[in-house]
Design brief:
The protein is mainly α. It has one domain. The chain has helices at about 5-20, 35, 40-50, 55-65; strands at about 25-30, 50-55. About 10% of the residues are buried. Strands 1-2 form a two-stranded parallel ribbon. It contains 4 helices and 2 strands, in the order αβααβα. The model has no long low-confidence stretch (mean pLDDT about 95). The radius of gyration is 12 Å and the shape is globular.
Length: about 70
């Protein structure tokens, strides 16, 4: 998933595991680390698991207000 970064891959695996355990809940991942988590491949994996990814707090807060 995240090229050459064991820690970021571990983070993604835990996030995906949690998403699998809670399929009916809204899920959000907020991280400014767009170099690793903002790649199209990682974003697709997150979307497939029903996880909304935000790289900016302001965008997350805007989304949260609509919920």
């Amino acid at each position: 998933m995240v090229k050459d970064d064991l820690i970021d891959n571990l983070i993604i695996k835990f996030i995906l595991n949690h998403a699998t355990l809670h399929p009916d809940e809204s899920k959000v991942f907020l991280s400014g680390n767009t170099r690793d988590f903002g790649t199209p491949a990682v974003q697709q994996v997150l979307r497939d698991a029903g996880i909304n990814y935000f790289s900016r707090t302001q965008n997350f807060l805007g989304w949260l207000q609509t919920q």
